[in-house]
Amino acid sequence: MDADTLVRHGLPVVMVCGNNAGWGLERHPMRALYGYDVAADLQPGCRYDEVVRALGGAGEIVTKAADIGPALRRAFAAGIPYLVNVVTDPEIAYPRSTTGV
């Protein structure tokens, strides 16, 4: 509900959600360690952008890489809290590093 706070304080923050329909940082390590994952799946294509809109901000869903740039331009021009909800492939593991890079 941080978006509610951003709206109440008039802070035009642009948020980008990499939406892979799961606890991506948990799903792939569980699969690697155990061969399966438990309770790591979320609703595919969940409309987090609509949650921000319902709280008084704005947002949109992006399903094609070519649409990310235009969506970000709209987000920065909006002047209100804006969520760019980018749907990503749930089978691609997030990169991990122990060096903090």
Mean pLDDT: 89
Helical residues, percent: 25-40%
Please tally the helical runs, counting DSSP H or I stretches of 4 or more residues: 4
What structural category characterises the helix and strand content?
A: alpha/beta
**Roughly what fraction of the amino acids lie in strands?**
15-25%
Which regions contain 5 or more consecutive residues with pLDDT less than 50?
none
Major beta-sheet overview: 3 strands, parallel
Order of secondary-structure elements: HEHHEHE
**Termini Cα gap:** 28 Å
Query: Can you tell me the overall shape?
Result: elongated
Radius of gyration: 15 Å
Strand order of the largest sheet: 1-3-2
State the total count of DSSP E strands: 3
Question: What is the compact description of this entry?
Answer:
The protein is α/β, with parallel strands linked by helices and 101 residues long.
Describe the structure.
Helices cover 36% and strands 17% of the residues. By secondary structure, the protein is α/β, with parallel strands linked by helices. The radius of gyration is 15 Å and the shape is elongated.
Features of the shown structure:
101 residues; alpha/beta; 36% helix
Task: Present the secondary structure layout.
Elements: H1 2-8, E1 14-19, H2 24-34, H3 48-54, E2 58-62, H4 68-78, E3 82-87
Parallel strand pairs: 1-3, 2-3
